[in-house]
Amino acid sequence: MTQQTTETLKQIGTRIKAIREISDLPTAEFARSINLDTEMYLKYENGEADIPISVLSAISTQYKVEMTALLTGGEPRLTRINVVRRGKGLNIERRKEYKYQDLAFNFINKKAEFFLVTAEAAKEPPKHAYSHSGQEFNYILEGKLKVVFDGKEYILEEGDSVYFDSGYNHTMSAVGDKPAKFIAVVL
Hints:
The chain is of the alpha+beta class. It has helices at 3-22, 27-33, 38-45, 53-62, 67-72, and strands at residues 90-95, 98-102, 113-119, 135-142, 144-149, 152-157, 161-165, 170-174, 180-186. The relative contact order is 0.14.
């Protein structure tokens, strides 16, 4: 992890801890409320582990906090329209294999999260599968993307899309030596 990523994780962890303390919940109860074991939750809260978007989404939903506030410490302000120009989405450093841009970061009370995701070309498949409550939609803009959903593999190309129950284990990775770009909508 880079020093910037480590510092970002610590800042996010501090904001999550503040939400837990404001909610007046012990660590174990807060962790249980977002379907995590206490040990893993503490790693996130202490900035010692990369926090999956799914965990941030669970906290955001469960505790009625905008994901933008968790990620940046700033509050979204717009209620009617949010225009984001090309390349101006909020960059989110999460994992080295993915680059996220939040495309609706300044809109209050979103019903879904919208990201432009670049999956970097990788020599080896992702080490961890993810699952989170809700549903997810991905639309491929460029390249080829391998989606492994509940143990079954799908290769998606430009113009293809997938919609799935994100409570099942899933991973995504670029196929070949070029990155894959896709729009991800997390509900």
